[in-house]
Fold these 2 entries.
Entry 1:
Amino acid sequence: MCRISKATAETSAHPIYIILGSGGHTAEMCKINQALLQPNNPQTHNRPVRYIVANSDDTSKRQMRAALPATKDSDFISVPRSRSVGQSWPSSVFTTLWALLWSCWLIWRDRPQLVLCNGPGTCVPYCYAAYMWRLLGCLPAHSKIVFVESYCRVETLSLSGRLLLPLVDMFVVHWPALATRYAHKPNLRYFGRLL
Amino acid sequence: MHLNDVYVTVGTTKFDALINAMTSNQVLRALQDLKCQKLVLQHGNSTPVAEPEVRRIYEKYGIQVEQYQFRPNVEDIRAADVIIGHAGAGTCMDILNNGKAGLIVVNDELMDNHQLELARQLASENYLYYCRVHEVASKLGVLDFGALRPYEPATKNMQMFIEALKELMSQ
């Protein structure tokens, strides 16, 4: 269905998409990024990174720039929030659909090599969009979706986690209780706590 | 062990039971025994302590109470000899990342609070202590904060994750 020109595929400009959420999630993601973007990681080091951040969330952006001083303003993509706290139900249906359309458009436009997220609700449409475009053959063949469950989740998965466990390539948990409970899931990995 | 500076934090929650417990006679007596001189209360959306009560505490126990709703808490954390707080992940991380003695107090009024799971896990690994509101006074008398394990960053685990991620991306 999608035609990716050979030239595009070979420049390997496909970015890494990192989905930021609110405070706690962002603090965790900062630590993961510091480890991921070290110069000795050839798969990730020279690859452009795009941070997806809700357009009302300046704090996450500031946090990430403080943790990784090399990030530029242009590395951030502002997107509509799917639901704000206290928003009414009917209007949140509309904003969620709007956020979903945005994620489909951005994933189609940038064809990320990796979608990496750690729990905020914002990440769900991006993972679904990446999964769908990959099924349709629009993403580079070995593009991957990776979800790191929140550090706070010890015994039960978050809602985002439950929605994404069936489709992501790697699903990481921090604590032994979850690792045991979902031991039958081949995509679930446990390395001990990461923070 | 001397706990000169005690920092109590409830984040953005309403946790009147903890603020009340911390200013109850039993807890104040326990704090006095531990040589507490300053009690900082970050009360968030809980009801603050009345001014006459603050004066009474100083006169009776020699403990100076300072309270506020919110403010950047870096200084309070650094100065604290012990942090007593609700089971929020932020509070747990503040305790661990700053190498502080910590006591997490469970808010019984919050049903199905998954953040409790984290506090319980960290307590089971001896990184901090964990109790209910009515136990604060007795726990302060017996807990050995010096016996807590220091929390080390999980660099090795993170490296294993990054290796697995690299391997996945090269498939």
Entry 2:
Amino acid sequence: MCGIVGLFLKDKALEPKLGEMLSGMLGTMCGRGPDSAGFAVYGAGESDEVKLTLRAAEGYDFAGLAAKLGDGAEVLQRATHAVLTVPAADEAEVRAKLAELAPEVTVVGAGARMELYKEVGMPTDVAVRFDLAKMAGTHGIAHTRMATESAVTTNGAHPFSTGLDQCLVHNGSLSNFRTVRRNLERAGVTIQTENDSEVAAGYLTWRMKEGRSLGEALEDSLDDLDGFYTFVVGTESGFGVLRDPIACKPAVMAETDQYVAFGSEYRALAGLPGIENAKIFEPEPAKVYFWDRAAA
Amino acid sequence: MNASTQSHSFDLATAKVRDLNAALHALKEGSNASLWRVSNPRGLHALAAGLDAPVTVEIDGPVGYYCAGMNKQATVIVRGNAGVGIGENMMSGRIEVEGDASQAAGATAHGGLLFIRGQAGARCGISMKGVDIVVGGSVGHMSAFMAQAGTLTVLGDAGEALGDSIYEARLYVRGQVKSLGADCVEKEMRDEHKAQLFEKLKAAGLEGQVDPSDFKRYGSARTLYHFHVDNASAY
């Protein structure tokens, strides 16, 4: 199964409430994916900085890590995750240092504005652990997982991030992901887990590196990815939606003057403000949808 | 409404779906508790499923999966959109959706009328077995897949592979058909078909609003009914 929710705000006044709205939506999708959950939120950020979202084992001493990194590095810890903000120019150097000084720490996402959290457990519990309801931002996506292609681990939880400010959640299963993965590795894209969805994320990152826009990259995936999928993809400026050509996995969207919302089922949207008067529709199969902050 | 009719209200913001369905299932033949108003459905699943009494259930808002599934006798009205599988395997009665319906509306249904005022998603009427489905808008791909009996009337367009592997059933489409599925062909619209179509439109309350002559009829070419000896080498 798996459940997906996504929220893209058009009305700035709602930005402080993004996390609260998203966590409410996520909670309704527990039944579709009680194994694990995760979310990415696009909040505050500076274009000359990079926020690295780090993950480590329960009880890890992130403050100690900051001290080891030196240079006044600061981390903001939330349960098993922490956000380390560094000058964009130093990103590679910091990543190298992390690998050397703290190999037990994983970088789960990076971007000027994106923060990414995921854990095993009931989605409502995961949202509470990371205090999702208090987060502010312009847009966010979240996922509840019922595992099929790989084990129930934090690594197998969604979203997957394979590029700066890029993330993907997936409901479905890809049948040719091993082939795509081999092709990506040949093209120099590293896939860290055994998960099919990470391959889809890596594929889109690779297409965008080759100069394609997100919309074009999603179009390309119609030719190159085989299987069942509903994808919701986040970038710094917006989010995109794509369903496979036979629309195997469910999707419902709602649009008002204030927001665009995505849910695997209407239940996820039922609590949103003004939903009674929203334009409700199901995304067409094999059609790329994209909402961009610049265009909104 | 006659004087003996009793009306009930059920608010799903506080009551449980199970309690609603249990109350509806407890109704006996001939009971006069015939009008049920359900508020705050919020896309919940299996609302008013498995009814078997001549009651009317009005649901004030969008419903989730399998609303009014297996319906017998009852009239179920949805004042909103419906999720996957509205009226799945209905046997008789009437279901009316004022908004759009998701995939597999009226799947495997044996009888009764399913009227969707808006659009219907993919696989509308999949494996239908005698139901009459009327869609005010368009239907998605693979509609009437493996249809066996009944009618599917579409005032709008039909998506790819309409009537794929159809056995029987009559498909009436007013708009464009993107493509026909295997063994589904356009057929002549004779007077008997226009009369049948008129009856179905009338049942949905659309008589006089649309002209049966504007529709085309599609059905089975019946070439897949029997094993073809030319395919023997495939085994």
